[in-house]
Amino acid sequence: ITFVITPASVPAVTFPSAVNSITYGQALKDAGLTFTSNAYGTFNWVDPNGVPNAGTGSYAVDFTPNEQAMQNYDWASDSRWIPSRNTLCVAVAVVINKADQAAPAVNKADETISGKNDGKITDVTANMEYRAEGEDRYTAITGETVENLADGKYYVRVKGDSNHNPSADTAVVIGAGRMLTVTVPQNQVGYTMITT
Question: In the beta sheet, which residues pair with residue 62?
């Protein structure tokens, strides 16, 4: 007598979720999985070393049946089956937070003469922005130097982007230039000083 035993229908496979949110720069494996195995096999990230962009995304997790489960169940009948890997695959949601950035190291040049407004913030880049004390809005920096600044306190930070938060501020104080003193002689010979 010959018996033909056909594989059983695929058992219910509940996929894990991510344990943690991660920060941009971390790999998917750092998010973890709430469980990594069941009675039928194991779960793993398809690209555990992948570094996703910030935001909430969906990333592939494979379920690999163990040897006994492969023999006993008709995995190919499941729409989630990936024949090239012999796995079931679903997308799992992961929250990726923006990364923080270090405050920039910059330099400055004070005014040369009081009121000339020729102070500078130097050693900056186009990835930075600045504002004067008392202002709410930052101005984008386009070169390596911010010029024509009055004396006072300024704040410089690295701009945020899709994967990074803005950095903390670096405070820069532009010192006032020297005062020019003009002494007018009482006896003006050959000329007359007037005000306009």
Answer: 44, 89
